[in-house]
Amino acid sequence: MSFQNQVVWVTGASAGIGEALARAFARAGARLVLSARNEAELQRVAACTPAETLVVPLDLADAASLPAKVQLVLAHFGRLDVLVNNGGVSQRSLALETSLEVDRRLMEVNYFGTVALSKAVLPQLLAQGSGRIVTISSLVGKFGTPYRSAYAASKHALHGFFDSLRAELHGSGVGITILCPGFIRTGVSVNALTGDGRALGTMDEATEQGLAPAEFARRALPLIARGENEAYIGGRETLGVFLKRFAPGLFARFLTRAKVR
Ligand SMILES: NC(=O)c1ccc[n+]([C@@H]2O[C@H](COP(=O)([O-])OP(=O)(O)OC[C@H]3O[C@@H](n4cnc5c(N)ncnc54)[C@H](OP(=O)(O)O)[C@@H]3O)[C@@H](O)[C@H]2O)c1
């Protein structure tokens, strides 16, 4: 599997899954564009990779700013082969205790930011007649769990959007891959929003015991290279996707007892 000389743009590359993906793509020969809000952390990741790397700080909540970021990338590399929509934020709060501002914030970052960036790169990919948009959803993009109402909604919305887009792009040379992580050992719960918009600030037990981000990346790259439509990466929690499909009543009962925050 090789991404030799391909231009791969990873959002959320300042930490966690995005950093691990960036390192794995660099090892596979890619040239990198690294994006997130924290420029110092992006520079740290860039300094750790041997790849030709362009750092493009951006805020996914500011959708109007994203087309100009695409122009920066194209001015530097002249093309784009893979966009990995990985940047995102999670939630740890009951629906009833979550302000509508937090619901909107999660949609702005996880859904509208991702959609806006994808739409901004699409004309270039279509002109090339090749490319792939990879979106990091979540198992919670396949089934809602307690404490994740707005996060689950934002991730479910991505599936609707990208399933439609995949069908529309058929025959264009541009593909869509959706990857759904289970529990991956990152700062996702530390950074997750609580009901009033403040970060949770602590590590979940399930996240702590999850897959290493490097292992996620090791499994993800071949799936992307093969052009898979959708895949689930994690431990036994990935079985939830199949339980929901084939035993929905049983699964709904199981979720009422779910202790995982
Ligand atoms: N870890 C898991 O268990 C898990 C499970 C399912 C899905 N996921 C998904 O995996 C993706 C990566 O999460 P992670 O686990 O690596 O968590 P993380 O360590 O918190 O990383 C999140 C990344 O997203 C970036 N980000 C957050 N808000 C942003 C914004 N407004 N604009 C631009 N970038 C932003 C962060 O960078 P800055 O703060 O520098 O902007 C950071 O690089 C997310 O989409 C998450 O929903 C993770």
Description:
Belongs to the short-chain dehydrogenases/reductases (SDR) family. GO terms for molecular function: oxidoreductase activity. InterPro entries: KR_dom, NAD(P)-bd_dom_sf, Sc_DH/Rdtase_CS, SDR_fam. The chain is of the alpha/beta class. The longest helix is centred in the middle third of the chain and has 29 residues. The termini are far apart. Helix 1 packs across helix 8 and helix 9 packs across helix 10. It is built from ten helices and seven strands. The model has no long low-confidence stretch (mean pLDDT 97). It has one domain: 3-Layer(aba) Sandwich (Rossmann fold). The radius of gyration is 18 Å and the shape is globular. It binds NADP nicotinamide-adenine-dinucleotide phosphate.
**What count of structural domains?**
1
| Overall radius of gyration | 18 Å
Tally of separate helices: 10
CATH architecture: 3-Layer(aba) Sandwich
Query: What fraction, in percent, of the residue positions are helical?
Result: 40-55%
Q: Which ligands accompany this protein?
A: NADP nicotinamide-adenine-dinucleotide phosphate
Top CATH class: Alpha Beta
Mean residue pLDDT: 97
And the CATH topology?
Answer: Rossmann fold
What does the largest sheet look like?
7 strands, parallel
Class by SSE composition: alpha/beta
Instruction: Report the principal-axis shape.
Output: globular
Main β-sheet, spatial strand arrangement: 3-2-1-4-5-6-7
- pLDDT under 50 segments (min length 5)? none
Distance between the amino and carboxyl termini: 37 Å
Q: CATH-wise, what's the superfamily? A: NAD(P)-binding Rossmann-like Domain
GO cellular component, one term: membrane
InterPro entries: KR_dom (IPR057326), NAD(P)-bd_dom_sf (IPR036291), Sc_DH/Rdtase_CS (IPR020904), SDR_fam (IPR002347)
GO molecular function, one term: oxidoreductase activity
Protein name: SDR family oxidoreductase
